[in-house]
Amino acid sequence: MSARFGERVRAAIDARGPLCVGIDPHASLLAEWGLSDDASGLREFGLRTVEAADGRVGIVKPQVSFFERFGSAGFAALEEVIAAARAAGLLVIADAKRGDIGSTMDAYAQAWLRPGSPLEADALTVNPFLGVGALDGAFDLAREHGKGLFVLAATSNPEATVLQRSVSATGRAVSADVVSVVSARNAEHTPAGEWGSFGFVIGATVDWTDAGLAAFTPLAPILAPGFGSQGAAPADLRHRFGSMSSAVVASESRSILSAGPSGLSAAIDARVAEYREASRG
Amino acid sequence: MSARFGERVRAAIDARGPLCVGIDPHASLLAEWGLSDDASGLREFGLRTVEAADGRVGIVKPQVSFFERFGSAGFAALEEVIAAARAAGLLVIADAKRGDIGSTMDAYAQAWLRPGSPLEADALTVNPFLGVGALDGAFDLAREHGKGLFVLAATSNPEATVLQRSVSATGRAVSADVVSVVSARNAEHTPAGEWGSFGFVIGATVDWTDAGLAAFTPLAPILAPGFGSQGAAPADLRHRFGSMSSAVVASESRSILSAGPSGLSAAIDARVAEYREASRG
């Protein structure tokens, strides 16, 4: 069995810092990079981003929707990009936000987390609208193979507030319930002092108090979109995440990718240095 | 521009009844059918199901996760299955439960609803955890092309209750909020007396009162999983959905698919007759 995902994330952050490079081949970015808006453009975009990330960061996050836009040909490109990233020793978080029940959810987990699957990644983002319990088959499969899940908990887009801050029969907000139930899963299987393998998606600009969130145990990775062009800066990380800040995976896409293929490596280097500086500040 | 999706669903139900045949190539069903558990097995399973559905029902619903399990090769099989169904005049609901924000959500909508996309279906199931407003780009794209969306509103799995019955700042349960906001989108664009093109997923065994749901306008299609092997019978349809029952798309998978390739047509015929009988009862 592979090392536990929680510990693999911790090692990646220890070695390279929190920056996670998003692989988001948006049509407008493909055009900026001089690539065609088709599966071969996606492939080129993804492989060049992996090449620039290799040795500079520990984690990459392909955004699945931009590959899905081209159907099976787009998925073939994604398979190559994921394989190249994993071969380079990068941790790959497939940002697919899948969510279903029973054997249907199991099939998603098998697609993204089963060793030998053509789409095999290290972790998958998942959606808890059908209940965290509906994801149990995915938790089991992930644990069995040293893989991880990031469960959507609190996002920073304004349209999300009404639902995610609704109050459940437990008296807690939806976001807090998700954190509580997932943390209980981590507690069952995480050796003392290690990180849980089931993390959360919590936007970098979310106000934890407003969202009903509090520090949780066991510590588990927090995938935080919203750094870079969406408004949060590396210097904000410790302030925003407090005692949880060591577990943040800071995801940036456009702020890095808009440097274009020739400027990509330098953009990543500069950003990694900013996170390093901020962690000392 | 194509006819509006809401009216296309109404016409399909008028012509053939509410039964929607799920295309769920679960590993155990592939084995029962004597097919290999790989992309060629999926393709064969899907095409045979389409062939049996053709002329018997109006709507089919491929379950995307079972195709995704085989990555790009599975998606290539799905593309063939969807194309065969649409060529036969069947309405195709891609059951993918996608949900994201902004341009990422737009890319999912383009994948499944844009004319000419390799995965082009007639409608897509979507997940509102990030807010119904986060789906607005998909609403716009669907409307532009005469396509539909089915928004997860109230599911019947027990793990879903805590989240979906949480109470929002509006004073309503999450499920009721989803129905309210989506119905407002329908109201903006639905001619009087027609059906909205943005429907809901509401489990066949959900108790509407417990779930905080009530009849809504404009009428819009309700995709109801849970008929067949999950516990609801055709005779329950009018009782469970009341004044909304004419808009129900009754989805069945295992109850039909377990008849195997040689018994499939007869199983569909028998089930269609049961719904016809129940609607007279």
Short description:
2 copies of one chain form a homodimer. Chain A has about 280 residues and is α/β, with parallel strands linked by helices.
How would you portray this structure in words?
- The structure is a homodimer of 281-residue chains.
- Chain A is an alpha/beta fold and 281 residues long.
- Chain A has one domain (5-280): TIM Barrel.
- Chain A is 45% helix and 15% strand.
- Chain A has twelve helices and eight strands.
- The first copy, chain A, has helices at residues 5-16, 27-32, 39-53, 64-68, 71-87, 102-113, 136-144, 161-164, 174-189, 237-241, 254-257, 260-280, and strands at residues 19-23, 59-62, 91-98, 123-126, 148-154, 198-202, 222-225, 248-252.
- Chain A has an eight-stranded parallel barrel with strand order 1-2-3-4-5-6-7-8, surrounded by seven helices.
- The radius of gyration of chain A is 18 Å and the shape is globular.
- Chains A and B meet through helix 4, helix 5, helix 6 and helix 8 of A and helix 4, helix 5, helix 6 and helix 8 of B.
